[in-house]
Amino acid sequence: IAFPIFAEREIEFSLNSDSIWRGITQNDGNPTLGANLYFSLDNGFFSGTWIESCCSDTLSYPTREIGFYAGYEKSFSEDIAFSFNYVGTNYPNSKIDNYDEIEINLLIYDFEISYFKGLDNFPDYYELSYNYDFFNNSVYLTYGDFDSYKNDNTSNGSNYSFGIDFLLKDFTFSLNYYYFNANGLRDLDDDGVVFSISKKTSF
């Protein structure tokens, strides 16, 4: 039996001053550790998994997040690409918080449009981002918006972020500002700055 040869295999480790998910802190300003494993094939199929020590606002919250994704990417040129994949996010000690999504991405030059279709009543999410590379660095801007949960117009909200990544001796350093604008209570509005260090290795 001949097994397909992976065109790309990468593992990435990261240390973050907080875990921010779509403009929302998941770790109440506490540092998190993460790891991501990624595989891709020459035919465009890819898959990966991640684990993060996040989501521990209180003792009743999950203390780690584990996820899996798999999908397909088609590049039409160096500047235009389309991809879709399944994403499953799991919390081993709080399974009620698990959720699944279908992710669709369209990359056109430095812009990316993303749509996350929530499954099993999980709300949909939309995001537009811009990324500009210079030397070994990049700057980015994003805007994202969540659909209301179960037609409750006061739930969820939108988020904005901008940041810079720079490469130094095989490490990536990131500085990011985020802002979350809640649809309901103003007390849920939030903003902050997150610093991250990551190391990616091919094998």
Can you walk through the features of this model?
The structure is a single chain. The protein has 203 residues and is mainly β. It has strands at 6-16, 20-21, 24-25, 32-41, 45-52, 65-75, 80-90, 99-108, 111-118, 125-134, 137-146, 157-168, 171-182, 190-202. The strands form 2 sheets. Strands 1-4-5-6-7-8-9-10-11-12-13-14 form a 12-stranded antiparallel β-barrel. A hairpin with a 2-residue loop joins strand 12 and strand 13. The protein starts with 5 loop residues before the first strand and ends with a strand. The relative contact order is 0.16.
Features:
mainly beta; twelve-stranded antiparallel β-barrel; two-stranded antiparallel sheet; 203 residues; 14 strands
Secondary structure elements and pairings:
Elements: E1 6-16, E2 20-21, E3 24-25, E4 32-41, E5 45-52, E6 65-75, E7 80-90, E8 99-108, E9 111-118, E10 125-134, E11 137-146, E12 157-168, E13 171-182, E14 190-202
Antiparallel strand pairs: 1-4, 1-14, 2-3, 4-5, 5-6, 6-7, 7-8, 8-9, 9-10, 10-11, 11-12, 12-13, 13-14
- Estimated radius of gyration: 17 Å
Mean pLDDT rating: 92
Helix segment count? 0
Structural class: mainly beta
The helix-strand sequence is EEEEEEEEEEEEEE
Major beta-sheet overview: 12 strands, antiparallel, barrel
Shape: globular
The total of beta strands comes to 14
C-alpha termini separation = 23 Å
Give the DSSP E fraction (strand runs of 2 or more residues): over 45%
What is the helix content? Answer: under 10%
- Strands across the major sheet, in which order? 1-4-5-6-7-8-9-10-11-12-13-14
Stretches where pLDDT falls below 50 for ≥5 residues? none
